[in-house]
């Protein structure tokens, strides 16, 4: 385990930022011409920082994450990252014909890890996400929460310093999501990864992040940011989490009203 965690933390403190988004705009072609989805976004994610992107559906959160991941290019502006980011989706996207361990080993293979090292590294990563002994399990044998843990382990296997997460727990039941919040916080603390996490769930954003960034809609602009000075461990039902969530929710509702969304 120590080897995996040391490699994940390697380089922390040497880079000035994990991600730097400068004056980024993004347009897509539509029936009425070019539609501006993101407008002049400037945002830095510091090394080891956990940032949540929050906003109503359609505000451009996932579009921005895809741009940072390099899956698309901005219409204007620049994006820089400390190495290639790892991306985790809402759906686990595991290969069903591979076992849990082999899904992780594939990521290690694509990264150039030697064959004789992959099994041990995959076992370390499964232990990190509290799935020790699950190397040989097929995807259909895993619960939804377990599949997302494997997906998280596979993302960490990419040895990136920046983890991009696009609503990874949205499809899970409340109890499983609550458990995975705890697990993600623990893993972030142990690995010292930088995390940019997209959600539309205000309490999830407050529970997890050091900083919450609210996007407006049509087009997406940074409306406001909050620094979350609530010590860990945090719970969804904590008074401080609830109070800040109420404040952010009111701001989010105001943005929705201003842009005529329901």
TrEMBL record:
Q: Extract the Pfam families matched here.
A: ABC_tran (PF00005)
Coiled coil location: none
Which molecular function term from Gene Ontology is one that the record holds?
ATP hydrolysis activity
Provide the alphabetized UniProt keywords.
Answer: ATP-binding, Nucleotide-binding, Transport
**The keyword Nucleotide-binding appears for this protein:** yes
InterPro entries linked:
AAA+_ATPase (IPR003593), ABC_transporter-like_ATP-bd (IPR003439), ABC_transporter-like_CS (IPR017871), ABC_transporter_ATP-bind (IPR050166), P-loop_NTPase (IPR027417)
Asked if the record carries the keyword ATP-binding, the reply is yes
List, alphabetically, the SMART domains matched.
AAA
Q: Where is the ABC transporter domain?
A: 19-244
What is the protein name stated in its UniProt record?
A: Sulfate ABC transporter ATP-binding protein
Look up and give the organism this protein is from.
Streptomyces caelestis
């Amino acid at each position: 385990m120590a080897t995996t965690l040391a490699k994940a933390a390697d380089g922390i403190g040497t880079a000035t930022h994990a991600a730097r988004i400068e004056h980024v705009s993004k347009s897509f072609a539509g029936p009425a011409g070019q539609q501006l989805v993101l407008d002049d976004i400037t945002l830095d994610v510091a090394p080891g920082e956990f940032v949540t992107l929050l906003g109503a559906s359609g505000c451009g959160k996932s579009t921005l994450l895809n741009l940072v991941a390099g899956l698309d290019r901005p219409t204007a502006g620049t994006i820089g990252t400390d190495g290639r980011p790892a991306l985790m989706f809402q759906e686990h996207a595991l290969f069903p014909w591979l076992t849990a361990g082999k899904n992780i080993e594939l990521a290690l293979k694509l990264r150039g890890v030697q064959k004789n090292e992959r099994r041990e590294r995959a076992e370390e990563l499964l232990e990190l996400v509290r799935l020790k002994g699950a190397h040989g399990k097929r995807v259909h044998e895993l619960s939804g929460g377990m599949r997302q843990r494997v997906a998280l382990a596979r993302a960490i296997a990419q040895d990136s310093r920046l983890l991009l997460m696009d609503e990874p727990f949205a499809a899970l039941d409340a109890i499983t999501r609550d458990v995975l919040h705890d697990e993600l916080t623990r893993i972030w603390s142990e690995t010292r990864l930088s995390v940019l996490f997209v959600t539309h769930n205000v309490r999830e954003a407050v529970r997890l992040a050091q900083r919450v960034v609210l996007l407006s809609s049509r087009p997406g602009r940074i409306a406001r940011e909050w620094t979350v000075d609530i010590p860990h461990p945090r719970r969804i039902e904590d008074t401080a989490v609830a109070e800040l969530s109420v404040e952010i929710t009111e701001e989010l509702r105001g943005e929705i009203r201003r842009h005529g969304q329901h």
